[in-house]
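Exercise 4. Each item below gives a protein and its sequence. For each, produce the structure-token representation.

Item: Inositol monophosphatase (Govanella unica).
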Amino acid sequence: MIDLDAVSRLMRDVAGDVVLPRWKQLAPGDVEEKEPGDLVTIADREAELRITDGLRAIMPAVPVIGEEAVAANPRLMEDLRALPELWFVDPIDGTQNFVRGEDRFAVMVTYLRGGETTASWIYLPVQDLLAVAERGSGTEINGQRVVMPAPPTDIAEIIPAAHIKRMTEPLKGQIQTRLSRFAGNRPAYCAGYDYIALLDGRRHFLLYNRTLPWDHAPGCLLASEAGGRAARLDGSAYDPLALEETGLLVAPNDNAWARVREALIS
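Answer:
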């Protein structure tokens, strides 16, 4: 049994103790560049350590794979399918937004069993919104059950959050052109924020190319348990341990997924 509430309390505590006190208060030495355009802050590292320790206290035998730990030691991503259980942690998703003092950042945790996402959490600290899902038990935001609303029938009213920068041609150019059919592209540059916006109807589909597990395993389970569909662009199922950049489309239901895919790439 997973103690969902214990993980929720841990995330709120770490956000309150470590993340929010650093928001808009970062000193120049508190921010580093892991690689061009990929930032990490002292808050990312401190939060990941706290969450990792907390998860080990909750389930001592289960390995914890954090984004910043992987940045320091990429070999942590090897042989993940051999692990019967594991946690993924993204201590601050949307670090660039966090550094700029914007409120679109999230703390995310996912639990996998047998390679399948079994439980997930996304917490938006500034908004104090906590989304939780357990496979087969639905999705809740702040304790209230969520079923995603259907998107508008008119495609011109559909609002996407599409991240296409990492796509390759000719697909990138095709999708860039076809996004003009929709009501303006509004990515948050924080997957956690995007997924919450999809759950509450402010966005009507999400599109990504790079799908690192700590970025997307949490949201894909939340969306699926709220009635949505998360799948690769070829229609194959999303696999959190498949690291190839083959695209990911998430929509409020099967019909919306098919309509959006047809509008984008058919």
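Check: Helices lie at 4-19, 42-58, 67-72, 95-99, 171-178, 191-199, 213-225, 254-265.
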